[in-house]
Design goal:
There is one protein chain. This protein is 29% helix and 28% strand. The protein starts with 15 loop residues before the first strand and ends in a 9-residue tail after the last strand. A hairpin with a 2-residue loop joins β4 and β5. By secondary structure, the chain is α/β, with parallel strands linked by helices. It binds adenosine-5'-diphosphate and magnesium ion. Adenosine-5'-diphosphate (ADP) binds next to β1, β2 and α1.
Length: 248
């Protein structure tokens, strides 16, 4: 494939897969009007783990919900994988989210009665995959997060870190272009938190996925490709962190 003259460097420039332009969002509770996001603009690249770091209440979850199409901004635009989300009706937006986005939350959100393999298979049925293909993909995703030998276990038989790896496998199995993680390590100890963030990093690199993680945990900073510091609904800085020690 021919390359434009401007990108003849040894590796092609990573492509921007998620853009927010002049996003604002407020909530009104009775007479109190709270502006949570202030005219926020950012570009997120595919194949990288981008971390948005900032204190509780600064607007991280709201930003993630808007970037993933779960909530609408009051003004501004979000372009995700080339699609202007503001121009999609509710049905098209839900389909976009189903096909292209994966989510990982602080609380794992697993079904108590299902084993790990069933947790990962379940959402694949909504994508129209055959049961055989769903099983093959679910097994491959669980193996990728290191849970191949434990895929027959239910949440009550798994540690917190293992539960979060099931949740990551569930998000990964549909091979989403965009993977969002909201405080994925907050319920975990430091060692398990590091395993989780390193798995997210490997997914970004290995699959070319856009991985956007928000967290108030400063220990994650050294594990990301890029860190955006957020405070009071604004991005204060955008930097490449000093790498943490290599994952074990
Ligand atoms: N649905 C809502 N209604 C009213 N206020 C909200 C709502 N969602 C978030 N907020 C407020 O927006 C601010 C930012 O919240 P949030 O995005 O959850 O921050 P973070 O994820 O960084 O902790 C907080 O003050 C919160 O109370
Ligand atoms: Mg939050």
């Amino acid at each position: 494939m021919s390359q434009p003259m401007s990108s003849l460097a040894s590796s092609p420039a990573p492509s921007i897969s998620l853009q927010a332009r002049n996003i604002s969002k407020s909530f009104s509770t009775g007479p109190i009007h709270n502006t949570v996001l202030h005219d926020l603009t950012l570009d997120i690249r595919a194949g990288e783990l981008t971390l948005i770091s900032g204190p509780s209440g600064c607007g991280k979850s709201t930003l993630l919900a808007i970037l993933s199409g779960l909530q609408r901004a009051d003004s501004g635009e979000v372009v995700a994988l080339g699609e202007d989300l503001g121009k999609l009706n509710q049905r098209a937006l839900e389909r976009f989210r189903l096909l292209h986005t994966g989510f990982v939350f602080q609380g794992f959100n697993l079904f108590p009665a299902l084993n790990a393999l069933e947790q990962v298979e379940l959402p694949l049925s909504y994508l129209g995959l055959t049961p055989g293909e769903a099983r093959r993909r679910a097994q491959a995703s669980l193996e990728e997060v290191g849970l191949g030998p434990r895929m027959g276990l239910r949440p009550s038989e798994l540690s917190g870190g293992e539960k979060q790896r099931v949740a990551i496998a569930r998000a990964l199995a549909k091979d989403p272009g965009l993977l969002f993680a909201d405080e994925p390590t907050s319920a975990l100890d430091a060692a398990n938190g590091q395993i989780i963030i390193d798995i997210l990093h490997r997914i970004a690199r290995g699959h070319g996925t856009t991985v956007l993680c928000v967290s108030h945990d400063p220990r994650l900073v050294g594990h990301a490709d890029r860190v955006l510091a957020m405070e009071d609904g604004r991005i204060l800085s955008d930097r490449v962190p000093t790498p943490a020690s290599a994952p074990t």
